[in-house]
Amino acid sequence: MLLLPLARLYGGALLVVFSVGRMWVPALSTIIILSLTASIRGEGGLRRSLKKYGLRLGKVAYIFAGAAIPYIIYGIGCLVAIAMGFQVVNPVVEALKGKEIVEKIPLSSEALLVLALLNSLTIGASVNALVALGEELGWRGYLFDELLNVTGSFYKVSIIVGIIWGVWHAPLIVFLGHNYPHHRDIVGVTFFTVLCVVWSIILCRLKERSESIIPPSVMHGVLNALGGLMIFTIRYDDELWTLPVGVIGLLSSVIILLLQEILAVRRFSYIK
After folding, report:
1. 18 — pLDDT class (breaks 50, 70, 90)
2. How far apart are CA 60 and CA 210, in angstroms?
3. What are 147-206's pLDDT values in tens digits?
């Protein structure tokens, strides 16, 4: 909280450092707790404890699922936007509109979009995923497992984790206008918290099925990377309507959530 005014004042590199450092607070808190309690729990050291909470490779197929989900949210979101009467445009063209560099790029707008989508995957599944790992180890790793041991309810725990995750962003929304520059108030915080609950269920299911926090970290990272393109894809007057953090993003994410849970239930019934 004390660094927020400085990050807002100076921006640039300090804001990046603040954002990355902040995302690793949940992980560092988890590491401290596990370091202090590992001997008491009899878990045989920090490394084994971290592995227990999902810091391992797990089932590799779910890593690809984690990378794909943000793109599916994006695609469905575009269809939802069109159905709602919004104008969907090439986000690269929209972002570069009015800039001289456009005339110097020897590529078509379609080729630029493909490159941007591939770049989002590359950055999202690597650098961004590593940064997101800080939150995922804390939220979907330690907190999810501990609460699940207490309640035994997947949905209840996923919702609780989602609410905590959303409220965790409240200072950024209120002080920096994060995601909602026109709603730096209870409206922005509440809407983002609802969105975080939906995403949390998706992420927690990935963690549960894969037995690893890597798939949710990849999904988190790719979603953050694609966010820049999503914002420029739909023309809007109020960010509460758009992708990925508006009504359209919420509806698209809910569709993905429902499809995921239907598949999860059917698979469980088949195995059972």
Report:
1. confident
2. 7
3. 999 999 999 999 999 999 999 999 999 988 989 999 999 999 999 999 999 999 999 999
**The dihedral of CA 259, 262, 265, 269: what is its sign?**
negative
Which residue type sits at 141?
Answer: G
Please state, in angstroms and rounded to a whole number, the distance separating the CA atoms of residues 5 and 2: 7
CA–CA separation, 19 and 198 (whole Å): 23
Residue for token pair 């997101």: 132
Token pair 């902040």 in the structure block, residue: 22
Q: Tokens representing 174?
A: 């209120």
Q: Are 144 and 159 in contact (CB under 8 A)?
A: no
CA angle 198, 246, 229 (to 5 degrees): 100
More confident residue, 272 or 133: 133
Which pLDDT band holds residue 106 (cuts at 50, 70, 90)?
confident
Alpha helices in the chain (DSSP H): 4-10, 12-23, 25-41, 46-52, 61-83, 91-96, 101-104, 109-123, 129-136, 144-151, 154-168, 170-176, 186-210, 214-233, 247-271
Question: Based on C-alpha coordinates, what's the Rg of the chain?
Answer: 19
Q: Please state, as a whole number, how many other Cβ atoms lie within 10 Å of the Cβ of residue 115.
A: 12
Per-residue pLDDT reduced to its tens digit, 7-17: 444 455 676 77
Burial 171-210 (b: 16+ CB within 10 A, else e): ebbbebebbbeebbeeebbebbbebbbbbbbbbbbbbbbb
C-beta separation of 82 from 235 below 8 A: no
Instruction: Report whether 119 contacts 221 (CB < 8 A).
Output: no
